[in-house]
Amino acid sequence: MFIGNFVAYSDQALPGFELLTPELLKRTRERATLRWADRYTTLIVSAALALLGDDAADDGLALITATAFGTHRTTFSTLDDILDFPEAQILPTRFSHSVHNAAAAYVGAALKMRGPAIALAGFEQVLCEALELAKTFLHGGLCTRAMVIAAEEKALLTEKAHELWPERFAADMPEGVVGFLLSLSPQDNRRGRLLLDRSARVSLSSPFTFGGDAKLFQALAHADATSEHHL
Amino acid sequence: MNVCISGFGAVSSLGVGLEATRQGLYAPPKLPTLPTRVDTSLRLPVFEVPLAGESGQPGGFTNTMLELALTEALDQAGLTRSSLAGRKVGVCIGTTVACQLNNIPFYDDLRSGRAASADLFRRYVVSAPAEWLRRELKLDGPAINVSNACASGADAIGIGALWLEQGACDLVIAGGADELNKVPLDGFHALGICSKQPCRPFAADRDGLNLGEGAGVMVLERPDDAKRRGHCPRHTLAGFGKAADAYHITQPHPDGVGLEIAITNAFRQAKAKPADVAFINAHGTGTDVNDRVEGQTLARLFPPNFAYMSTKSLVGHILGAAGALEAIFTCIMLEQGVVARNHRCPACPPDIPVAPLSADLAFDGDLALSTSLAFGGSNTALVIKRMS
User: What's the mean pLDDT in A97-111?
Assistant: First the structure.
């Protein structure tokens, strides 16, 4: 697969990542008219807008989102409603935004995308699975370009994850989003070739629960069309 | 697309296993009842699976149902769990509830600064269905949880078929699982789309859905691989179409734009045309908007008097498992040569040009379509073929 574009934002100063600022999220909300959308969705839409830039979406563009904890801030807001309000009076908007694929719906509406959109959730290298799925979609002819966007928001659960399972989750996990625009066409190549090999994937290290590889993220930030990346 | 459905297993309110499912599809419908496992003050009828279990526990009832469906699917495919270990087997499971930590007592402790259960949190992390199955069965292949709301189960089956066609694995366990849970029950009620009566898909007086629960699992293989081990599957997945509406977070596009693209793409893959299908197992939730958009879109794409129905009048809306179970119901109806009626819709509704089936219908064809429409404007179409 060829990488047409790569974006990465984090609230921490990580190699290869741009700083995730309130201004960036505000710009996204204005540009995509995200009046009701939550922070997780705003992260995903920010990456989607940056990936496409001035390009237009077409029916051949697919979207795959990946996350571990997903929209847990909104899910917990729904639980707040259930705990604090009469059961019959919880807020419908919070509930509808707590589903994992709400973000994909907003990307679709913002970019007028009618291609396949899939939301993945998991704790075992879900970003790598999403990239593999993009490859499957591209080779299977379901799309001609695929956006893969992985995001994790910072909220109560991610903040407490280390306390609840210190061996598995780091303290002070970053908030962030990474996005890939992928294609099989050499004409779309801007950041090099991405070669996926599940069997060779042994020692990946990522600061994010959605997985991936910190070295790859760093390399992609400065990569050109001649680069070759392995994952 | 030509991927064998080598076996399948089902758990729903119709019963545990294919025989109970087969009988339930054609029997007088069981009516939904008030939930017994969900602590709720809302008096909303639901379709419960006739098994003991506890709602809201990560890795609990959802995975119990999933395991039962998997065992049956493997058995029907002539496979054992031990025969899969170490093989390049992919697992793709659709779910909604199992991907979210929505255990209310856990969260209440967390937000109040009390000691929240670390054990429950750990079970949540390790219980995401596809990853859990990969670990349990010691498989060596891709494992993904599709959380695409109500299209998740159908998407999982389509993705599994694509994996096989692209050589990503040699066998796929695909399907969906979801349990009844207080959060979606309250949420769908808040959205105003739950009926207080047994749901009436496509009926003029439809007023909402009933939630259900269950699991459906398919074992998928390439035809040559099935043949090589002497297995004769009875169905193939001939087409998978997937498209987005680009319209609204909860409502489908009023013209069914994404659904039309999904159906068209599925037929293109199947090298078939709408006139070729014997029947359509529609998404048909019983909500005003879904059924109008879906019914009008199907009427636009299919020949006059096409046969369609929704099984949600029998089992309710099983969210992340709905598309998978409905694909399995479609296989059963293809096998029986009889499509089950759409219950509680006695006449053609004024806003849909063609009425759903009001009586069971015997047919000769070998091709059927199953559609799924989801929150987020996510549409999926599966074309399933009965093998001669």
Answer: 92
> What average pLDDT does this structure show over B39-62?
92
Give the Cα separation of A147 and B272 in Å (integer): 30
Closest A-chain CA to B39: A87
Subunit contact A101:B257, Cβ cutoff 8 A = no
CB contact under 8 Å between A92 and B187, yes or no, is: yes
Residues of B in Cβ contact (< 8 Å) with A161 = 121
Q: What is the pLDDT of residues B79-124, one digit of tens each?
A: 999 999 878 999 999 999 888 898 999 999 999 999 999 999 999 9
Least Cα separation, residue A223 to chain B (angstroms) = 28
Rounded to 5 degrees, what angle do the CA atoms B342, B358, B297 make?
65
Q: Which two tokens stand for residue B121?
A: 């949190």
Instruction: List the single residue in A95, A114, A161 with the smallest CB-CB distance to B258.
Output: A114
Whether the CB of A142 is below 8 Å from some CB of chain B: the reply is: yes
> Tokens 């439809």, residue?
B206
Question: What is the 3-state secondary structure of B289-336?
Answer: HHHHHHHHHHHHHCCCCCCEECCHHHHCECHHHHHHHHHHHHHHHHHH
First-last CA distance in chain A: 12
CA distances from A195 to A63, A149, A201, B27, B365 (A): 19, 18, 11, 53, 44
| A135 lies within 8 A of chain B by CB | yes
For residue B211, what are the β-bridge partners?
Answer: B317
Interface ipTM > 0.85 = yes
- Taking contacts as CB-CB distances below 8 angstroms, the residues of chain B near A151 are none
Q: Identify the band that residue A56 occupies on the pLDDT scale cut at 50, 70 and 90.
A: confident
Tens digits of residue pLDDT in B153-174: 999 999 999 999 999 999 999 9
The phi, psi pair for A188, rounded to 5°, reads -90, 0
Quote the crossing angle between the two packed helices A102-111 and A39-52, to the nearest 10°: 40
Active site residues of B: 150, 283, 317
